[in-house]
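Reminder: ligand-aware prediction takes two inputs, not one.
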Amino acid sequence: MARPGPIIVGSGIAGLYVALRARELGLRPTIITKSRLEESNTRYAQGGIAAAVGGDDSPELHLADTLRSGNGLVDRRAARLLTDEAPRRIADLVRFGVPFDTVDGEVALGREAAHSRPRILHAGGDATGLQIEETLRHRAVDEGIEARERTVLRRLAHRSGEIVATLAHDDGTGVEETVGRPVVLATGGAGGLYQYSSNPSITTGEGIGLAFRAGARVTDLEFVQFHPTTFYHEGAPRYLMTEAIRGEGAVLRNDAGERFLPKYDPAAELAARDVVSRAIDQEMRRSGAACVWLDATAIPRDRLYARFPTITRFLARYGLDPSRDRIPVAPAAHYTVGGVSTDFDGHSSLAGLYACGESAATGVHGANRLASNSLLEGLVFGERVARQLLHPTSGTPSTPGREASVVMRPGRGKPLDDSSFNEVRSVLWEEIGIVRTGPGLRAAVRTLEAVSAHVEPAEPTDVPLPGANAVLTARLIATAALTRTESRGAHWRTDHPRPVAAWRIHLGLVRRPGPPAPRPRRQPLS
Ligand code: SIN
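Here is what comes back for the chain with succinic acid:
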């Protein structure tokens, strides 16, 4: 009998790639996405995808940069797989038709922060994510892969040893169960839970919350990466200004016009992302300004417009010409380093549930992801998941150095309204941002628990209403950040301002059921 094909949740690079490879391996995958097929974080990725394909580069150098960026917490075996397998996965993208940019017939390689070599492949200049997403999506459609839009995974459970996924339309109709079909979470990260983010609004981390609710372990959620340079304009959503611009020679200036990064790190504008974000944050706090300035005026105009067509077009809407004008920028939430714990073949701690891409945590990024390793992770670990789907083996994520439990108390089962969601977004931004404080983290946990009491189902067996899994993910981020009493990489606390050797471990979170909700008193019959 043919093995049931996987349900793949999410249509970014990881979801589309797993679907295409599963199809090539003879399986019949179904992609579901809560939005439109084309909408995902992948589409907005600008800079590119890292792989050691240049003449003076090697996977060892890429590995060394990945390890350095991760501040002592990178799982070396995961990073070795990532960097060794990168060139083969790039070859897959080329085979699928991704039109990477070239110079004189050779692939063009850009430079980004904390990379010791130019190794960033890009497409359409600064439209790499868009080009990849469109290519893979069209290919999936051509291959006849079943794709269901506006469809959500509402619950995961086990019945008679088989994984059961409850799917429904986003309006709650058309509820359907799949039994025994492997489920691959490729739902991306939780950047959209922050008030200011480079991510599209759909990135609310619901896949992570849903997996946790079903009993899967999550790890490393305290490490939320902030991109140093998103376009700042009061009242407008943030928009990524790729760090490839700094790779081409742009510098950052404070409100007084001074180039400030050299005083924070010898690598200046090409220091690791956490360092640059903190430096900007410090400059903004010192001056009281709402932004700093990205100065690309030293880059020749032709080069700037040819290499960054998306960004120059975007800036023109604000009347800005980056060959002449400085660009107002500020950091914003960008990437969720942690996620559903998996081994290197995508097995979560829940049988039948796999995860890959930004929603997964393999330990490959340590405490701070190296630029342009994220699209790559979707491919490398997506490939490994696709092979598992064909020839499943048992596997389980390694046990983290420390595990904390999160109590799941029944709530009032109300839908998450806009004002509560805005409260969640603002508490994450204010208290679990670039620089965190002990009191701020404790306040965040309290606020999120209060919102949670409102939206958690009244009975553990009830299907949570929309928004409950997003709030749960926010709670997990807050709990993890409060628990890790040190500063490392993207997790920085003023009350524990240094890395601590004993914390050179991963932090896992597991679910603990709370006491049942108080039963409403029976009214006496009159
Ligand atoms: C960028 O283009 O700056 C973002 C790339 C990444 O997040 O790796």
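Residues 45-47, 242-244, 335, 371-372, 374 surround succinic acid (CB under 6 Å). Residues 229-331 form a domain with the Flavocytochrome C3; Chain A, domain 1 fold (CATH 3.90.700.10). We will return to this case in the review session.
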